[in-house]
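DM from R.C. (forwarded with permission)

"hey, sorry to bug you on a friday — could you get me a structure for this? deadline for the figure draft is monday and I only need the backbone to look sensible"
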Amino acid sequence: MIVVPDDFPSVFQESIAHERARRIGEVRVFTERGAEDEAELVRRIGDARIAINIRAHARFTEAVFASCPTLEMVSIWGTGTDNVDLEAAKRRGITVCNTPGVNATAVAEHTFALVLAVARKLCSVDRAMRAGEWPRDMLTQLHGKTLGVFGAGAIGAKVAALGRAFGMETLGWSARGDARRVRALGMVPGAKEQILRRADAITLHLRLTPETRGFIGRDALALMKPEAILVNTGRGALVDRDALIEALAAGRIAGAGLDVFHEEPIGPDDPLLKLPNTVLSPHNAGQTPEVRRDGLLLAVENVEHFLSGKPTHVVAGLSG
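My reply, with the result:
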């Protein structure tokens, strides 16, 4: 049996991916909120052999794996794996696969939309005009500026290409220390501190791991130029939230474009909502029809390959 325990808000139910999964065997889909509760997630998985994970609020912990002895595979819709205890999966022989690269174009476009929105002060200018004003603020031109890209995966590669198209010098940093790949993507490799000091716009495309949690903290923000822009479309916890709020409120950096947050949905009293130099979007950088269709289909395709004995896009467990 295949179970989709966390299809809320629903994207899988009655999709073409759902229909394809039905051709494999029995499929049970839960479209109600509740998978964030560990006991409820265990109940929903039940005696399923395979789980297709849609939302990151469903956390596949050691305890969940221990309570689901028939579970053999978790197929994740998306790239991020921070909601899955990969070490526990390995210990228990559970294969975990994801769908890398499917959302790269959409997230890269959104990343640059945030860079532009902050640089051109689009949201604050729009609000002022609707209030009857005619603002004449100085804006930031990207051509000739320096872009710092943290992360050399599929999304970082496309962001770097967009930066070059705007006439920006692009600096790159790889979590794996792979300077050769950074150069192959048309970026100049640099140390973290060097990029923070030089870049006029910094974008984050890193996986959330113990090593990258708080990747941009007080020390990192202190190295950035006062006119620099920070854009995060990776994971909220890549940035020290309190340090960022302090830096933005004090004008120590020019602004931030954020698609990801420590708490999602963001709370109504969150200080980020009151800062005029932020542009915010609700973790929807990859929400396009193309990404949804292709990503869900790839998640089901990963299941097909696993059942045929040739698993693909494996991040934990057997790789064939």
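R.C.: lifesaver. The chain has twelve helices and 13 strands.
me: no worries. The first helix runs from residue 16 to 22.
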